[in-house]
Design goal:
Layout lengths: L7 H11 L2 E5 L6 H6 L4 E4 L3 H9 L11 E4 L6 H12 L6 E5 L17 E4 L5 H4 L6 E2 H6 L13 H10 L3 H4 L6 H19 L7 H13 L7 H8 L9 H13 L30 H7 L4 H6 L12 H18 L5 E6 L6 E7 L5 E6 L11 H10 L3 E8 L5 E2 L5 E4 L3 E2 L1
Parallel strand pairs: 1-4, 1-5, 2-3, 3-4, 6-13, 9-10, 10-12
Antiparallel strand pairs: 7-8, 8-9, 11-12
Helix pairs in contact: 7-13, 9-13, 10-11, 10-13, 13-15
């Protein structure tokens, strides 16, 4: 299969051309190895049992290989991290080492942070443009500049198309499977993470079905700030013998270490012009396709859950998964711009903004996600409230939707179909 270019490519090239070592990290199957291979002369694949045994016995052996050297799944032999770190201390020639990792090593692995020697770069699943299903006409980078650029473009994607893309996944290996077999592939992916990867990271799983039930309840809370105690209650209805809180906390922390959970933090303004903001994260899985599969969703069930999709509201499961896809997109696009992505919610819930993109200088782009083809002026009310609160700190207002055209509303809010948003 031909390599599909990724947004992270340009960022990786910039780092690798000027620095000696880069670690490309992210969930298993997200495409790290294929991306790193484009830049490597030699590959040491530690997910091969024989190779792993050799390197485990003598980690320094990796330094005998020609560079650029890719050390794939480095966390399986954590000692190689320090081997690379020390090699960088001796020689800072750019472009020598690429590491990929599908999990952070267990806390018992005593390795140096690598600060100043090995730069970490996160890779997430593919956005819609990376999947080749649309051609963007609106640039996130231009929106963040703050000059209120002209917004235009026409998108061919409709609600059924977005629904299919949500369930088709942004994982390259899953996408290439026949559509009717993708559910089985995702089931296998989830089971392998829970049955093998989590125990390998030091978490004892005595009741794997209970933990899978918790993960399913977490998926049902996608794009919400539901309390973790309520997620546990939803996973164990009527059960007196619930998993211990410490067990669930360890499980949740481990799922973040393998990047299966990707919660969206709350926005905490540096200049603090706002008061009484909630600080709970919004719940997201790394790929909305995984959330959909855990909940048994199909294209038909999502489209017809509450009647014709043309009347769908954003507080349905499809609305939550569409918001999750939009959040994934913004995170991928914002990373090369050194912008952070958060959400805003006041403590009493009077005002909520789905996505806040914050520039390094702390100016922000505010974004609402609406599962509608025709957003109204009222849909921008929380965006306009934020503008009244922070003034010039707000560089632009955006509604992401499922419509056909990109344009600006009378109040200046940019209306952008998700398929038209690009770097």
């Amino acid at each position: 299969m031909d390599y599909q270019p990724r947004v992270v490519d340009a960022e990786l090239d910039a780092l690798f051309s000027g620095l000696p070592a880069v670690s490309l990290e992210g969930a298993k199957g997200v495409g790290k190895t294929a991306t790193a291979e484009q830049r490597a002369t030699t590959i040491v694949a530690l997910d091969s049992r024989g190779t792993r045994r050799t390197v485990d016995a003598e980690p320094e052996i990796v330094l005998t290989q020609p560079t650029p050297l890719l050390i794939d799944e480095w966390q399986l032999v954590p000692e190689v991290w320090d081997v690379v770190r020390r090699a960088v201390d001796r020689d800072r020639t750019p472009g020598r080492f690429l590491l990929t990792g599908s999990a952070l090593p267990p806390p018992t692995a005593r390795i140096h942070s690598g600060a100043g020697r090995i730069i970490r770069l996160l890779m997430r699943p593919m956005t819609l443009p990376e999947r080749g299903v649309c051609s963007p006409t609106v640039s996130l980078a231009e929106l963040l500049v703050g000059n209120r650029p002209q917004i235009s473009g026409r998108c061919a994607l409709k609600v059924p198309d977005y629904t299919e893309e949500i369930l088709a996944s942004g994982f390259p290996g899953i996408r290439q499977d026949p559509a009717e077999l993708r559910a089985s592939t995702i089931d296998s992916y989830i089971d392998e993470l829970l049955d093998r990867d989590v125990p390998e990271l030091g978490v004892s799983v005595r009741r794997p079905q209970a933990l899978k039930a918790w993960l399913t309840a977490y998926a049902a809370a996608t794009a919400t700030t539901t309390a973790y105690s309520r997620i546990l209650d939803a996973a164990t209805p009527g059960e007196a013998d619930k998993p211990a809180r410490s067990t669930i906390d360890a499980f949740r922390a481990t799922l973040q270490r393998v990047w299966l959970l990707d919660p969206l933090p709350a926005w905490i303004p540096v200049f603090n012009p706002l008061k009484r903001l909630a600080q709970a994260p919004k719940h997201h899985l790394v790929d909305p396709a995984i959330a959909g599969r855990l909940l048994g969703a199909t294209v038909d069930s999502l489209l017809m859950a509450d009647g014709p999709y043309e009347t769908r509201r954003e507080d349905t499961l499809l609305g939550a998964l569409f918001e999750s896809l939009a959040t994934l997109t913004l995170r991928v696009l914002a990373q090369p711009l050194r912008a952070s992505v958060c959400h805003l919610r006041t403590q009493r819930g009077e005002h909520e903004i789905d996505i806040i993109v914050e520039r390094p200088d702390h100016k922000v782009l505010a974004i609402e996600v609406k599962l509608t083809s025709a957003p109204s002026v009222a849909d921008a009310r929380h965006l306009n409230w934020l503008q009244s609160q922070v003034g010039d700190l707000l560089v632009d207002k955006v509604i992401i939707c499922t419509g056909e055209y990109a344009y600006r509303q009378e109040d200046g809010t940019a209306v952008i179909p998700l398929g038209l948003l690009g770097p």
